[in-house]
Amino acid sequence: MTLRDLKAGESARIDTVGGEGALRQHFLDMGLIPGAEATVVKFAPLGDPMELRIHGYELTLRLDDADRIEITGLDKSREGASASGAELPAGSGTGAGGHTRAGAENAGRGRRPRAPHPALGESYAAGGKGKERTPAFPEDHIYSFALVGNQNSGKTTLFNRLTGANQHVGNFPGVTVDRKDGVIIGQKNTLITDLPGIYSMSPYSSEELVSRNFVLDEKPDAIINIVDATNIERNLYLTMQLLEMERPVVIALNMMDELTGNHGSVDINRMEKMLGAPVVPISAAKNQGVDELIKHAVNVAKYQIKPEKQDFCSEEDHGGALHRCIHSVSYLIEDHAKRADLPLRFAACKVIEGDQRILAKLAFEENEAAMLENVTAQMEAERGLDRSAAIADMRFDYIGKVCDACVTKPAESREHARSGKIDRILTGKYTAIPIFVLVMALVFYLTFNVIGLWLQDLFDLGIHALADLTDHAMTAAGISRVLHDLIINGIFEGVGSVLSFLPIVVTMFFFLSLLEDSGYIARVAFFMDKLLRRIGLSGRSIVPMLIGFGCTVPAVMSTRTLPSERDRRMTILLTPFMSCTAKLPIYAFFVSAFFPGRGGLIMTGLYLLGIITGILIAFLYKKTLFQGEAVPFVMELPNYRLPSPRSTVQLMWEKAKDFLHKAFSVILIATIVVWFLQSFDIRFHLVQNSADSMMAMIAGVIAPVFAPLGLGDWRVCTALISGFMAKESVVSTLEVLFDAEGGVAAVLSPAAAGAMLIFSLLYTPCVAAIASIRRELGGKWAAGVVLWQCVIAWIAAFVFHAAAGLL
Ligand code: GDP
Ligand code: MG
User: Fold this and answer.
1) Beta-carbon count within 10 A of 434 CB
2) Which terminal Cβ of the chain has fewer Cβ within 10 Å, N or C?
């Protein structure tokens, strides 16, 4: 039997975990280990993926992946208890979500003092208590701290607290994608780095590798390990590995407000003893305990107080097979680890797990490698579990003991119960997708028709007023006509028209940040996964695509939340196919000139054409550029939370800043170039009629390319070129170059107008979008997008034009 065979509400004990390599390790690290008990909470409305509860938290798992996990069903009575959501009866240890074997063996609730167990791994723990300490660094040393923790544990919230920075916080796993540095407020010589969330020190995605390498290579003076107290079993899994890193560690137990609010508690002193490192309860969101945390962090960094314990295997557990294995391997590789500058205990575990990157660093000779393999194989035989599972099991085992001894969990937290209720509707079988459509429609309606539009008009008024004022001032001062023209018709028109989109972008992000911070987007990803998987993406890609209908710029920026580089690239390349709102004026212009009264039909057709082309292109990408599978969709589903106003405002400010930066760099330059080309002829004389300008010449050169589409007129070509600046300017250029709407109708046939619409829909995104693509993917990709989109658009328009001609 596999996990896939379970029905919603049923529980089972995991027997074996299939798969191989990093993927399997990832499953193990997420807590899917032999012996653990899992409950299927529900299936997504489309039947795939499933939501699973394990170790007291919820995660998503695709059915194909679930199929690799073999299980033994549990009897009905226990099932009932788990399915009702009472996963953690107060004080009864790890409970249904926990680790059954740990529970069974641990009848004494772990209160037995651990026998002193001096071994190699421990000798590295420096600095016992009561010793006279001297600072390990000179006075002016800059202390570096790394903020390490699971995704969604509150790292960024804490980072913002500590540094006063405005990093984006979100209730969506994977919000922090690259590292950010800052100085702790009031502690001048400190540097703290916010890292992407990781679940273990076995990197699974490239972002996770960033975090691991930071700890291994840059050797921060201390690690601040942020642990979500409401989800402590899973979070401590990473802690166990950080304690092996031979770096000073402070454990920040975050979200204590939620835990204590539900009458849970943690025996901090006991936990400190069991983990051998300082534990500080905090609430980053409420700013409680943060000062205390800083004090501890600075202290361990200053005196380089390393964790006192690394040895979490035990002689008694399962005959001590793993214990003997780890310690023998430690002895065997000690010289190599020292040479490779790797923490010994960490290296030993990685050698046993067979981590290729670490093995390469350690550079064993053939005999050594064979010997290590033999030791490990013997352990597997004695332990009855494979190497990776044995190590994961050892960690969860010890975590079980720590939690039994120190943590009183609430029966069911209010937040969790509330989330369950909300989820019944928002991810319900029949309600999920209709509600999603409604929510998105509402967001778009509010953004583009109500709030955003209103703000945009207001903003437009402001810009115009400013332009007028400048106009008058310059006229009064007798400024040269050319400069006057550049500023008013070039810069104010160009930059101003782009700037007027600022309110829409900010409003859009306001709503999206509400959705994301509340935890809803994580659910959308959950139930859209099945559809997106067909085109080679995972559920997480849905968000950027949706934003793409508004504007490609924020859509591309939002791909940062995607955990896999492959998915991120592919998503970025697909977002331009979602017809953005700036193209609406073009559609409206041609509909009224050529197809009056059929606007609705044509607009819908164009949007659909964009989506269908996007899907076809996605299939193409899947077969060529982006072969391989989308990353397995193992994602935590966090509880719903009320979005914090602070972080929402911060996000809006960040986006506004980004946008302004762009408007006054790339767009400003491009505007000036276009203005220049439109205003001068080849001998740099100011032209009266733009038909004599360089732009007209260039457009004349390009015109033959467009002739097969029926778009050979230089003015139409100019309009399309200026659309590269901003799609709206296609219409404004046409309006300038043709005196009346009838003028366009005179040079274009209806078939050509149709081709024009299709070409406008599909051809290169505007400069702003290309600039953001360049920022995310680099210049080559951005240039590629420009060319590639033009080719696709040309082909589509050509096919349409030819077909229309035949008919
Ligand atoms: P990261 O992924 O680790 O960077 O986590 P974030 O900082 O983005 O926070 C994840 C979620 O947890 C956000 O919705 C925060 O508002 C919330 N959060 C962070 N700290 C606390 C806390 O101390 N208490 C509560 N109740 N929520 C918190
Ligand atoms: Mg973060």
Assistant:
1) 11
2) C
